[in-house]
Amino acid sequence: MSESYYDTISPHGGVLVDRVMRGEVREAVRERAEQMVKVPLDQMGLSDLELVATGALSPLTGFMRKVDYDRCVEEMRLANGLLWSIPITLAVEQDLADRIKEGQEVTLCEEGRVLAVMEVAEKYPNSQEVKEREAREVYRTTEEDHPGVARLYGRGEVLLGGDVWLVDWPTAVKTEFPELRHTPAETRRMFARRGWRSVVGFQTRNPIHRAHEYIQKTALEIVDGLFLHPLVGETKEDDIPTEVRIASYQAILRDYYPAERVLLGVFPAAMRYAGPREAIFHAIARKNYGCTHFIVGRDHAGVGKYYGTYDAQNIFDEFPPGDIGIVLFRFEHAFFCKKCGAIVSAKTCPHGKDDWVFLSGTQVREMLERGEMLPEEFTRPEVARVLLEGVRRHREAGDV
Ligand SMILES: [Zn+2]
Questions:
Q1: Which position among 140, 206, 314, 392 bears the catalytic label?
Q2: 247-275: per-residue pLDDT in tens?
Q3: Which residue from 57, 65, 226, 334 lies 20 to 30 Å from 124 (Cα-Cα)?
Q4: Dist. CA 214 → ligand 1 center (Å)
Q5: Residue 200: which of 255, 282, 82, 303 has the closest Cα?
């Protein structure tokens, strides 16, 4: 590994995992893989494979075995005691599982195309009872109205655990923002090259409104660099389309951020909407990318009314800070105050709701769909224009 590898922070568990096969070995394995039983990956499986292979989920080297899965669900830890909040599992249908023996090698496929080889160390049940336990513990609800729970219930009834080796990238890696799809090894080098000793990671699946800009820049006053790391894996249908979001990030970075202090990358994870547990997961992944700090705002990774506003911050108090390593920046809900003439929070402004400019996500979406500009106190005009244009194009294409 290169000299400046661990300049910012050690990966979770100490070593950055690399499960990407290269060179002649890769060719040989890929050829052999064609003869193995093929296991199709769903969208989340493809994301998880990419994340494992690149080390974004270090120390995981594959899909979870039962000891890790059980302890993760019940105690938010791996079998070895390391903090880990979200199960990373590979679910298959019973009839496919029946064709696979423990110890056997299989290939993981995207529409028939071989992506990886997995040594199936273990098969274990993913019965409705098992899924409901995961729903209750990880998502804090067993209701199918929750998008993460709905997806969990829809997966196969057997889990395969074992290490993976990637021989070819999922299609999305080559087609969806390849220029922004930096791996953890790459971001660590990029941070080092910029001379950043401390880096704050910002997770988002939404456009950057003024409040987010305020939070990011407040954090950036304290650390050397900002890693803007929007999630581009599978999301809900009513989230703003990814390519529109990326264009809006590029617009605001160009006009309002110092280029040498910000890096934009995409995070290829699927959204679980698991709120507090997912906040920990997002923080651990960003630690692997080399971030020393991580921003958690209000209702991080939440959906509907399933989680309290600051649950995703409070969960970090349940274990010693050393267990996660990355430093948390907790931010309150921020908004524009007409009297202060600035973005504030209830922590910094003595005025009240009458002076504060609030817009809900639903209100923003409705305004955009009506073709209305968002207020300048809420969103930079450069961003609003990109969003308006994006929504219009999608409507014309019949997507919304
Ligand atoms: Zn005020």
A1: 206
A2: 999 999 999 999 999 999 999 999 999 99
A3: 57
A4: 15
A5: 282
